[in-house]
Amino acid sequence: MELYVQFIQSQKKDVLTKRQYKFLADDAITSGSDYDQDANPLEGYKIKERRLQGQNRYKRRLLSAKHTMRRKFNFNWDRMVIRFRRFYNKIKQLVTLKQPYTFSPDGSMKMLWDLLCLLLVIYEMITIPLLISFEIELSQAFSRVSTAMFVFDILLNFNTGVYLEGKLNMERKEIFKDYISFWFWIDFISTFPYDIIMDESLLKFLRFVKVLKLVRLAKLKKIIDKFDEVLSMRPGVAAIVNFCKLFFFVLFFAHILGCIFHYLAQQEPSDDSWLGDIYFADWSIRYVNSLYWGIATMTTVGYGDISPQTPQERFIGIVLLLIACGGFAFTMNSIGFALQEIDGQNKLKKEKINGINRFMKKAGISNQLQNRIRRYIEFVMESKSLVLQDLTNQVQIELANDLRKQVNGKLLGYCDILLKNHSQQFLIEVVLPSMKERVYNPEEVIFDEFDFQQNYDMFIIKTGLVDIFYKKTGIVVDQKRRNEYFGEINLQVQGVLISQAYFKFIKTNFKKVQRNFKILHKTHKDEFTIYNSII
């Protein structure tokens, strides 16, 4: 024990805090000769914590306040430089174009542009039916600006990479072939400036030509699906979003039906059409009545207060009613699928839990242990933990390496002890591939100070909170939070451990650096020399 304390005090870098130095140097605390090996470590930790809670309440509060103030005002310059460099690289990546000077379809700027185009498409699909049916005047300046933006979108699509057979292709030749095969013609027909080329004497015909702009609705679903993939919402939130999309679909469908029915009434004399007394009323009043008829017809309610009067209106009403029934049936079917998907997930959970319950009853397991196992299985099923290894095993080697660099590299940026003492090449080639992800559950002991057969690793916390405590007395040495690390001494001194880590919050993810760190150093002679100098 004295050799270990002497080694800690001889370190060139501050590996431990002052509280940990004081804890290690205290012979009364570190003496563990009377430790009961058969005791439950977690229960002992809880009993000691409750026993000392009243005695050390003021002392712990004072230590916690000092520890919090020290963390609050401790400015880590190296970490700020790393964050600034990461931010600068992101901005540089967005601004700088690489050969063949094309844009990524998943870039932030491209996503913002697609969002703007989505809003313009929604605006046009609402205003164009109003313009044709109610003959309202819209801003010509805004119309020309939107046309110019869609023309720019066509040029941008010729310079945006595409996914072919699951791989990103940035070559202009392949981009041109893919875009010109289908989507270019959709964009060209819906973007062509008909109002600039045609004569003003054909104003009435020009309104009908603008219906071609609604062809762009075919691209609306593509953009929405792209945002759904990027957002990757939870199942409950995704179900609510799907309901909202179906609601707006019903509203838009009723909007189209109402505009068609109103346009037909405008072609009839005022005494014969269904408009009646509101034939010459303001367009907003006529629109509300038309939308009311469209929703009542689509939902097959049909109150009868608004009904077609002439044979022409009745014939168009039959056609619209058949179309509305099909659209409403599609909506109800989509809602049923969404509810069935949610219910199917709950049903699958119940089936698994029932199977586990039957097995435990046949095995004669006690009720207390059954409840603990059942709660643990429910926690695992609800968390749906997916570690990095599960994802890298399903993709190609090149994609797996890029994924490890981005995921592990962000966490490694918070590990000062590795960044200060090793080169960037060594960290990328050796340390990043050796990092593995682990998931721990509530009240689970990460490592035990008296378990000499356990392989101890260095841990970097991704999410959660960890208590590092001495098992015999229950004294908490330190608390580790997100992006902090512990167990770094295991990379330098193997088999020496004088404290225990206990997970406190609901769930946590760790990135561990494997214990064969010294073996990995030998493949890089310069790094091995630095490693020996630290020791």
Automatic annotation (TrEMBL):
Gene3D superfamilies: 1.10.287.70, Helix hairpin bin, Jelly Rolls. GO terms for molecular function: voltage-gated potassium channel activity. GO terms for biological process: potassium ion transmembrane transport; regulation of membrane potential. PROSITE patterns: CNMP_BINDING_3. The keyword Endoplasmic reticulum does not apply. It is found in: Membrane. It comes from Paramecium tetraurelia. Keywords: Ion channel, Ion transport, Membrane, Transmembrane, Transmembrane helix, Transport. It is a multi-pass membrane protein. This is Cyclic nucleotide-binding domain-containing protein. The keyword Translocase does not apply. Signal peptide: none annotated. GO terms for cellular component: plasma membrane. Residues 457-491 form the Cyclic nucleotide-binding domain. It holds the Pfam family Ion_trans. The chain crosses the membrane at residues 111-134, 243-265, 285-303, 315-339. Its main location: membrane.
